[in-house]
Amino acid sequence: MLDLAIVGATTVTPSATVRADVGIEGARIRRVAKPGDLEPAVKTVDARGMLLLPGAVDAHTHLDAEMFNARTADDFESGTAAAAAGGVTCVIDYAFQTPGQTLAQGIERWQEKARGRASVDYGFHIAVWDPSQAVCDEAARVVENGVASFKIFMMQGFEERARDYLRFFTAAAKAHGLLTIHAEDQHLIGYCTERLLTAGNRSVAHFAASRPPLSEAAAVARAAAMCKLAGAPAYFVHLSSAAALREIRRARAAGLSVAAETRPIYLYLTEERYLEPQGERYVGLPPLRSAADRDALWQALADGTIDVVATDHCCWKLSEKLGLDRFTRIRPGMSNLETLVPMLYCEGVAKGRISLARMVDLVATNPAKIFGLYPRKGAIVEGADADLVIFDPNRKVVVRAPEMHSRSDYDVFEGFEVTGWPHMTISRGQVIAADRKVQARAGRGDYLPRAAFNAQWRSL
Ligand SMILES: [Zn+2]
Questions:
Q1: Interval between CA 94 and ligand 1 midpoint (Å)
Q2: Which of 148, 154, 163, 315 shows the smallest number of beta carbons within 10 Å?
């Protein structure tokens, strides 16, 4: 006897999008069957008219993170509640190394933050701030222990230690770890910023000009050269511009193992937002771009240049973003976990820009494959964790910050009318959210040690 049967939905499996019933036993998907073919179940959910998707894997979050002399508004409790409500059943959060400490100490600090608080499953990347010899020596052990990806910020001291970073790239590659790279060139940005501030241009209206697309493209090219020397695979986070995408294509054509991520804000918003009153609310790194860049990103989602859409969920109270005397001091980042899946469905699938199967690849299957969680996560297949979203393609929701589960008190998509919203989110066989209400107990989320990077992930 099955514990749970979901019947009547249009189900997205790796091979096809078809009418199929899914049977769950305990925490796992036991059967994916033709309609009407399942054995009896203790509980049956009638999902006619709904889509059945694998739970999303958000490969880029910052929960309970200390940055810019403050702590992000969401910790693992509120952040994963927003995830559950939005159909995200797994997050991979960025743990931070404290300079002078080991990577293991940074990871342990993040374990303490998440333990007892997360309501969806979670894993970690580790951000490397100090690429010392000791840290190079530690890389293999960190990967073996399930943290198989390293974040590199090409800013705040990267240039000064580029050779140390190159040694670290080599060590990471040897350890079968994946470098996740924030690509922005600190010197180009420094120059543009200085020029603006010297001319008295301090307001957020000038923020986008301080970090132009070519500073992103130049950094992608530079990192790609370093990865080539080191023999290291790379994953570029939150790409925002057509120029950077051209560098991704060039690196791939040169034979590098390169994966690419973008982030929702660049798909739905453009740089004119910084001219609005409270334009600060839209500040993230890199900045919002032009409509032509936005269109290039959509094209890249469709043609396979971009592999993953992840949130970079990193949010603040509005009061923490406003009132600063220059754009360089605005805390970057915003809330996005609850809107990731429905907005990509509405703006991408319903508007004919990408297929439903492609959307599932972008938010679930690809991140699970790239980050060593597949096939336990990321696809509706027999034997996988029963992480599922029953998605109502017709439900209309207007985004309103007070109705969201993030502790951030504003939403960059406030007032957006979204058609299509999760009806029910299931994690390891348990209903954790239904009708926009979270039912999960804080602490039920499991830590997920991840497998080493597999350069053949596309053919898994
Ligand atoms: Zn980030």
A1: 7
A2: 163
